[in-house]
Amino acid sequence: MEKEVEELIEKAVTLVLDAQKIVVFTGTGVSTESSMPRTKRSSGLSTATSNEFVFPTFVGNPTVRRRSWQTWNMFRMIEMAQPSQAHYAIAELGTMGKLDCVITQNVDGLHQKAGVSEDKVIELHGSLRWLKCVNCNRRYPMIEVANSLGEGEDESICSECGGLLKSATVSFGEPPPAKETGEAEQHSRNCDLFMLLGSSLMVYPAANMPIYAIESGAKLVIINLGTASLDQEASVLINGTVGEVMPKIIEGVKSRLAQ
Ligand SMILES: [Zn+2]
How many other C-beta atoms lie within 10 A of the C-beta of residue 113? Predict the structure, then answer.
């Protein structure tokens, strides 16, 4: 690794050591490094796939069984996806007691799989781990529905009201979830270090979060391949992959703590 990058990592290590409440914000750059199925729009599993999860009216449709099986296979792939080095490194901040929360644009649930507790993950674009009834909003674990489809059930419908089930993700054109957005803003305003990882922040309200943090006096660390809109504001800006850089930062923090 270049000397310049090593110095930047050392600076980031110091910021992490000095921080008490770190907000980690993750975009597709974090999930592209894990074993997720690829989408047409990006190399990571993004909300672009949501439309593929809208369950059309199944009943009376001759292709119903085939479609169910395709869906089931997609669910299996999501279930089998494993966290990357980046996810595990972020989870270590939690073990150290420094992680306030993870705000993520990803819908794959891999932060939780890597060990970040459920109550510390704010999913701005929803989650593929859950299905939601389009009629009564009741939620179902995706894997349960996947298993019932795998056992040959034709339909994925709500057992309460018979409504269709759809993945609990935010589709294109849908407004961002108010609860999650509000929580994300609150945590961003109350952190002392905001780490923007693998996101170029093209969409609002996500793009506001680091601005709230900076306004409230937090330091900003950016790790991203390519540029992000807030590069000028960053205390430390590292042009690299999160999976390569983040474990080095954690390693550096640990060795300084051990001294
Ligand atoms: Zn229902």
Answer: 17
Cα(144) to ligand 1 centroid in Å equals 16
Residue 55 has pLDDT above 50, yes or no: no
CA of 157 to the centre of ligand 1 (A): 8
**pLDDT grade for 148, boundaries at 50, 70 and 90:** confident
Q: Is 40 left (phi over 0), alpha (psi -120 to 50) or beta?
A: alpha
Rounded-to-integer distance, Cα 114 and Cα 110, Å: 6
Ligand 1: distance of its center to the CA of 127 in Å? 18
Cα–ligand 1 centroid distance for 55 (angstroms): 13
CA of 158 to the centre of ligand 1 (A): 5
Q: Single out the catalytic residue among 87, 111, 125, 187.
A: 125
Mind listing the pLDDT tens digit for each residue in 183-209? Answer: 999 999 999 999 999 998 777 888 899
Is 187 among the residues known to form the active site?
A: no
Q: Which domains does the chain have, with CATH numbers?
A: 1-42+83-125+175-259 (3.40.50.1220), 46-80+126-169 (3.30.1600)
Task: Please give the C-alpha separations between residue 217 and each of 126, 154, 188, 212, in angstroms, as whole numbers.
Answer: 29, 54, 10, 9
Closest CA to 146 of 97, 87, 76: 76
Q: What is the pTM of this model?
A: 0.82
